Amino acid sequence: MKFERRDILLIVGLLLFMIGLIPFMGLAYAVIIVAIMYFGIKVYVGKRKQSIERDVGEGICMECGSKIINKKCPSCDDSQE
Length: 81
Prior knowledge:
mainly alpha
């Protein structure tokens, strides 16, 4: 979970959400909820990014859209040979 530029937008949004929670509950509870939301979102995005990288692998074929394996498209390269 490294810090990226778009995390600033997430932090600002969560701070505004925390300000909105303060009238309904105490400051400590609002801070705890926002901290849990921040780390939950970071974990979810990290796992989603890993899943996409695993699915894409080396890349995607421009002809058919299938996953490239060993620098060859299994669908297009088999039909050309």
